Every structure is written in C-alpha cells, then in structure tokens.
C-alpha cells in the first residue's frame, strides 16, 4: 500500500478514520503489526509496517526507527505530546491517530486490505 | 615488389598514438576470437593470458592508433637519389609519392637498391615508382591490418582517411610497438589498481576503532535509545548492512532499557571495528537472582511504571541473545550484572 498523495489517506487508513499527526509523505506500507510491548515489536515487527499501539511515549520512536517502521497509528484517540510529534517528523516516521479501539482498528485495516 | 621490401630500421622514434578506442561488445568477442586468432602470429605466443589480451587489443585498436603520422612524402618529379637521402635522413624504408595531395605511388628501399644497381638513381621518381598501391583506412582494426600484411606480403601500407587523404604509413613494426605500448600501459594500470585495492583493504583493517560509551541512569526512560541510535549512525556510515545494524541496535536498546528498568544504574560500551560490534553492559546492581529464569521469554520483574511504558514483556534478554552472534551474561546478587554481546559485521545475519 502506498501513501503517495500529500493530502489523501489511503483506503485502509481512511477506513479507520485516521488523522495524520505529521505530514503525509510518499511512504509504502508493507503490512501491519499490533503490539504494546516494545520488546515484542523489536523482536517481531517487519520493516516498513504500520505499527498500531496505544503507547505515545517517545520510546516508540526509538523502537520504530530501529525497526524501520514506516508509520505509527495510535488507537483510542491517543495523541503524543508535541515534542514527540516533532521528533517523529525529524526521524521521518508518520504518526496517525484513530478514535477506534485497537480491536476495531485491526478489523478494519484487515478488511481494507492491509495484510 | 616495392611493398615487399623489408624495413631497415625501426621507424623514427615518436610517441605512439594511444587514443583509447571503446572496447568492442563482449558478445561479439568470442566469435571474433574464434574466427581470427591472428595476433598469435605477430606476438610472442608465450603466455596464453597475454596473447589473448593482445588479441583483445588488436580488435580494440585502430590503424590510426599505430600508424606513423604525418608520413614523409615526396613529389613525382623528385629524383630517386633524393628519396634515398630522405630514407637515410628519417631512417625509413618507404616513401609515398603525392601529386597535389593525392597518393599516386610509393617507393621502397628495394626500389632504391635496384635503381643503384641499374644506374638510374638520378632519374625522377614517377618513372620508376610503384603505381599499384594497396592502402589501409585509418579506422581499420589492427587485426585487419595484420591480415592485410599477411595477405599481400608488403612491409608497409599508406593509410588514407575517409576523404582519401594520406594521413600516415603503417608497418608491421608499428603494430607490434603499438600493442606492446598498450600492453604495458594496461599492465601498469592493473598493478596500480591492485595496489590501490590492497591499500584500501589495509586501511579497512585498520579502520579506526570507535568506542561509544555512556552511563545509563536508573529510571531514565527519556534517554532510552540514545546509545543505540549513535551506534546505528556509526554503522550506517561504515556501510554495514541494515539487518546487522538493526540487530546491534536492538541489543544496545534492550540493554539500555534493562539498566533503566532493573538496575541502580550502569554503563554501556559499544566498540566498533572493521569486523564486529562488541556491546558491553555493566550495571552496579542489584544483580539477577536467577539468570536461567531471566533468560526465559515472558518472565519479567519490571515494575508498574515500566509496564505502563510498554516494557516488562520479559523479552529483553532473549531478544539480546537472539540478535547476538556471541552472547554472555554473568550476574551476582548485590554486586551487579555484566553482559557482553558481539555482532559480526561481515556475516549476513538472521532476519528479524
């Protein structure tokens, strides 16, 4: 799945009503990984995936950049503080937020074809 | 047979024209080689590799690269005696005759000898010169030139350009000299390249060892990942493949967070050289009560704050072990824990 357009959300992310917290860039999502345990993400996430989590602490950026994760989607309407968003921009990681729960998010992303 | 006369001396000394022609397409090359192994005749067929390389050159090089240019010429009205003097002065064995810039004949050293014998050395050239001239074009390959030498038995050919203008003269000796010159140059290039390679390799061996170390404070979740990131930047700058970079970074990150979560503080030292990254982690206690248990996935003693932040999955040590090519851990209650993990840079690592 490609995020090509600067303003248009790709179908899977639109399906979960995601709001971009950083500017949309031409990245490519290779899949999705859902976990709230950082070590689990470090061990098991593939590069280029969309990471769905409830964590908004800056540790997620360290983990994401280490694993070359393309984008992080926060569920339950969570949003990290401004400093973390700024750091994400610097690291080139796309941040998004959805009001849906992790479970609903997972179901909709799967249905929309992000596999 | 004017062309058949043998040259008496080498051509007057001059820098060989060494303009490099584009190499021939490799696809045609095998075919050409099979068809015309001509170079073996003209070159010393000693070393096989050299001969085949000379063969490459005879296809690459053109007549214009080997010919003597501009040629020494004379007019039809000149006497054979003046030609003899020209040959003597320039140490050449053949002189093309031009009338109004058009090639009309050629006189060889044999023609001169015959003239001396016959007593007509003072007569004009046009009466005795050879008018049937075989010429070569300046764009012909040397392999073709060699074939023409073989076919006609002549010692030299005048060389014409695309406009039929006489631009040079070529002998078998010129072909050989040109080839030798190129062989020498290529050999020098190869030696220089090899030396540069060896130097680069030696420099790589001696690539400055970089040591990154930092103290890690207990409970300092904000700083987690800093050492890992710095190490990753160094590895990227050194061209280490992403997978290996990632494994080293995960080790450092898990070690950092372990110190933050579990210890009273500690120190991480990453030593990077050309072959490996060695990450050494020392903390000042309290020590792990049961290492076997700690190495089990899912087992964690992390407190509620760490768990709140996404740590405490009980995967830190197993993750480090999995990412490392070499791993060791020692711990003593009341003293502290020492962990050492090595990632080899050259090795293609396991995917994570």
Report on the architecture of this protein.
The complex is a heterodimer of chains A (about 120) and B (about 350). Chain A is built from five helices and five strands. Chain A has a single domain (about 10-110), classed as 3-Layer(aba) Sandwich (Udp-n-acetylmuramoylalanyl-d-glutamate--2,6- Diaminopimelate Ligase, Chain: A, domain 1). The longest helix of chain A is centred in the last third of the chain and has 10 residues, at about 80-90. With about 120 residues, chain A is α/β, with parallel strands linked by helices. In chain A, about 35% of the residues lie in helices and about 15% in strands. Chain A has a five-stranded mixed sheet, with helices on both faces. Chain B has about 350 residues and is α+β, with helices and mostly antiparallel strands. Chain B has two domains: about 1-185, CBS-domain (Roll); about 210-345, 2-Layer Sandwich (Heat Shock Protein 90), CATH 3.30.565.10. Helices cover about 40% and strands about 20% of the residues of chain B. Chain B has 13 helices and ten strands. In chain B, a hairpin with a 2-residue loop joins β1 and β2 (about 100-110). The relative contact order of chain B is 0.11. Mean pLDDT of chain B is about 80; it is low at about 5-45, about 45-50 and about 345-350. The interface of A and B includes residues 36 and 61 of A.
Present the secondary structure layout:
The complex is a heterodimer of chains A (115) and B (352).
Chain A: H1 11-15, E1 19-20, E2 31-34, H2 38-44, E3 49-53, H3 59-66, E4 71-74, H4 82-91, E5 94-97, H5 102-111
Parallel strand pairs in A: 2-3, 3-4, 4-5
Antiparallel strand pairs in A: 1-5
Chain B: H1 26-35, H2 39-42, H3 48-60, H4 63-66, H5 80-90, E1 94-99, E2 102-108, H6 109-118, E3 136-137, H7 142-152, E4 156-160, E5 166-171, H8 172-205, E6 210-216, H9 226-237, H10 242-262, E7 266-272, E8 276-283, H11 291-294, H12 304-308, H13 316-323, E9 326-332, E10 336-344
Parallel strand pairs in B: 3-4
Antiparallel strand pairs in B: 1-2, 4-5, 6-7, 7-8, 8-10, 9-10
Helix pairs in contact in B: 3-8, 9-10, 10-13
């Amino acid at each position: 799945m490609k995020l090509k357009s600067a303003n248009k959300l790709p179908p899977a992310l639109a399906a979960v009503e995601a709001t971009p917290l950083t500017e949309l860039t031409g990245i490519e999502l290779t899949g999705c990984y859902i976990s709230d345990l950082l070590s689990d993400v470090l061990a098991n996430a593939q590069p280029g995936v969309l990471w769905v989590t409830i964590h908004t602490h800056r540790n997620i950026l360290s983990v994401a950049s280490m694993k070359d994760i393309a984008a992080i989607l926060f569920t339950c309407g969570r949003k990290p503080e401004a400093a973390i968003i700024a750091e994400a921009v610097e690291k080139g990681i796309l941040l998004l937020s959805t009001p849906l729960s992790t479970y609903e998010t997972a179901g909709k992303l799967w249905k929309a074809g992000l596999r | 047979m004017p062309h058949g006369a043998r040259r008496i001396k080498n051509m007057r000394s001059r820098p060989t024209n060494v303009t490099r022609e584009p190499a021939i397409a490799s696809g045609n090359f095998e075919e050409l080689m099979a068809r015309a192994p001509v170079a073996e005749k003209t070159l010393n067929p000693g070393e096989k590799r050299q001969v085949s390389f000379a063969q490459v050159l005879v296809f690459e090089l053109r007549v214009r690269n080997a010919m003597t240019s501009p040629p020494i010429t004379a007019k039809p009205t000149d006497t054979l005696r003046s030609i003899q003097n020209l040959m003597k002065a320039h140490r050449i064995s053949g002189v093309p005759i031009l009338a109004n810039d058009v090639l009309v004949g050629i006189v060889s050293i044999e023609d001169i000898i015959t003239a001396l014998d016959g007593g007509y050395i003072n007569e004009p050239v046009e009466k005795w010169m050879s008018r049937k001239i075989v010429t070569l074009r300046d764009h012909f390959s040397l392999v073709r030139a060699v074939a023409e030498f073989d076919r006609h038995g002549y010692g030299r050919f005048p060389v014409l350009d695309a406009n039929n203008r006489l631009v040079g003269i070529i002998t078998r000796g010129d072909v050989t000299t040109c080839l030798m010159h190129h062989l020498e140059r290529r050999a020098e290039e190869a030696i220089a390249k090899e030396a540069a390679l060896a130097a680069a390799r030696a420099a790589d061996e001696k690539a400055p060892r970089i040591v990154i170390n930092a103290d890690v404070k207990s409970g300092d979740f904000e700083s987690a990942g800093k050492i890992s990131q710095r190490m990753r930047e160094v590895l990227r700058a050194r061209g280490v493949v992403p997978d290996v970079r990632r494994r080293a970074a995960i080790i450092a990150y898990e070690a950092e967070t372990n110190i933050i979560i579990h210890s009273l503080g500690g120190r991480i030292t990453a030593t990077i050289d050309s072959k490996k990254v060695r990450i050494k982690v020392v903390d000042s206690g309290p020590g792990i009560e049961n290492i076997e248990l700690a190495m089990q996935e899912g087992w964690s003693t992390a407190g509620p704050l760490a768990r709140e932040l996404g740590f405490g999955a009980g995967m830190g040590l197993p993750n480090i072990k999995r990412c490392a090519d070499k791993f060791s851990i020692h711990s003593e209650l009341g003293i502290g824990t020492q962990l050492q993990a090595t990632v080899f840079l050259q090795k293609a690592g396991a995917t994570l």
